[in-house]
Amino acid sequence: CGEVRAQTQWTQDRTDGVSATAGDIGIRNALVVADEDGRRATVLALFANTGEPDELVSVQVAGSDAEPEGGPLTIPAQGAVSVGPDQTRVDVTGVDAQPGRRVDVEFIFANAPRASISALVQPADGIYAGALN
């Protein structure tokens, strides 16, 4: 008999992004998409909130600050929101985010503690084509 591992037994992300937790906020599938020279980038992530309403105030990518398009992004109580090309954008310019490498990303919330991850930088092609403005 071979080893059987139910899908729920996997503890690692099965996507390009990484996950983290900041208090009641779960950060899922977070990654960065950048142009060829890594100077322009955008953040993709999903935020799931199991607590009271909160806001994503800003994001730091490799030390460069960015804010959600239109100001702080509300994360409703018991709800979820995403940042990305078809949702609220979090674009970064003047950053050093070379595709194929990892960069430090810090998510800053109004109430939840800060969360830091090491995110993979994907090139803006394939499934990520069109992610950049």
Question: Short description, anyone?
Answer:
The chain is mainly β and 133 residues long. It is 0% helix and 47% strand.
Structure commentary:
With 133 residues, the protein is mainly β. The protein contains no helices and ten strands. The chain has strands at 18-22, 25-34, 40-49, 54-61, 64-66, 73-75, 80-83, 91-93, 102-109, 115-123. Strands 1, 2, 3, 4, 5, 6, 7, 8, 9 and 10 form a ten-stranded mixed sheet that branches. The radius of gyration is 15 Å and the shape is globular. The N and C termini lie far apart (51 Å). The model has no long low-confidence stretch (mean pLDDT 91).
Structural class by helix and strand composition: mainly beta
Which radius of gyration do the C-alpha atoms yield?
15 Å
The largest sheet, given as strand count, sense and whether it forms a barrel, is:
10 strands, mixed
Order of helices and strands: EEEEEEEEEE
* Strands, total number: 10
N- to C-terminal distance: 51 Å
**Estimated helix fraction:** under 10%
Strand content: over 45%
Cα shape? globular
Round the mean pLDDT to the nearest integer and report it: 91
So how many helices? 0
Spans where pLDDT lies below 50 across 5 or more residues:
none
